[in-house]
Automatic annotation (TrEMBL):
It comes from the Bacteria. One of its GO terms (molecular function) is transcription cis-regulatory region binding. The lineage of its organism: Bacteria, Pseudomonadati, Pseudomonadota, Alphaproteobacteria, Hyphomicrobiales. PANTHER family: REGULATOR OF RPOS, TWO-COMPONENT RESPONSE REGULATOR ORR33. GO terms for biological process: regulation of DNA-templated transcription. This is Two-component system, response regulator RegA. The modification 4-aspartylphosphate is found at D69. One of its GO terms (cellular component) is cytosol. InterPro entries: ActR_PrrA_rreg (IPR047772), CheY-like_superfamily (IPR011006), Sig_transdc_resp-reg_receiver (IPR001789), WalR-like (IPR039420).
Length: 190
């Protein structure tokens, strides 16, 4: 009996010739701006503003590429990435988010995303991530995370590992529960 691994095999190269792309984001101005920029670079873009709309679009025609926002109005963008990998194994997806943390980045990659970018990402960054070879290392960031951001990322990671249980996370971090709630309610530091 064969056992399946948690990691799906990554395609060695980007799908050749097929420039179809699904773009899923609930921020309409950003969605329209990125869609236009990607179309100008030769992609045939289909847009969706939520998880259900995105899954319906990929069931109609599974694209070669996808750019999916992590947090959408009707759910988690990782559901779209997982559905895409089920519909088309050679598809390449990038997850975008304004609420980046290490735990969700790892989950995104496990579910089939090839990269995880913080918003606001421009079309060139998205295309570079989609076309990068699996063994190719990305360039180091121009502006690495601050110490405050690293602390926030660590808290978010523990929070995710505790299944978003505030009391358990606070206990494990030796932090007062209300202090943790205030930290979680704020946006990520730069």
């Amino acid at each position: 009996m064969q056992t399946e691994t948690a990691f799906a095999p990554r395609p060695a190269m980007a799908p050749t010739g097929d420039m179809s792309m699904l773009l899923v984001d609930d921020d309409r101005p950003f969605l329209q701006r990125l869609s236009r920029a990607l179309e100008q670079r030769g992609f045939a873009v289909t847009t969706a503003e939520g998880v259900s709309e995105g899954i319906a679009a990929l069931k109609a025609s599974a694209p070669a590429y996808a750019v999916v926002d992590m947090r959408l109005g009707d759910g988690n963008g990782l559901d779209v990435v997982q559905a895409l990998r089920s519909a088309r194994e050679d598809a390449r997806a990038v997850v975008l988010t304004g609420y980046g943390n290490i735990a969700t980045a790892v989950t995104a990659v496990k579910l089939g995303a090839i990269d995880y970018l913080a918003k606001p990402a421009d079309a060139d960054e998205v295309i570079a991530a989609l076309m990068r070879e699996p063994d190719e290392r990305p360039e180091p960031p121009e502006n690495p995370m601050s110490a405050d951001r690293v602390r926030w990322e660590h808290i978010q990671r523990i929070y995710e590992l505790c299944d978003r249980n505030v009391s358990e996370t606070a206990r494990r971090l030796s932090m007062h529960r209300r202090t943790l709630q205030r930290i979680l309610a704020k946006r990520a530091p730069r």
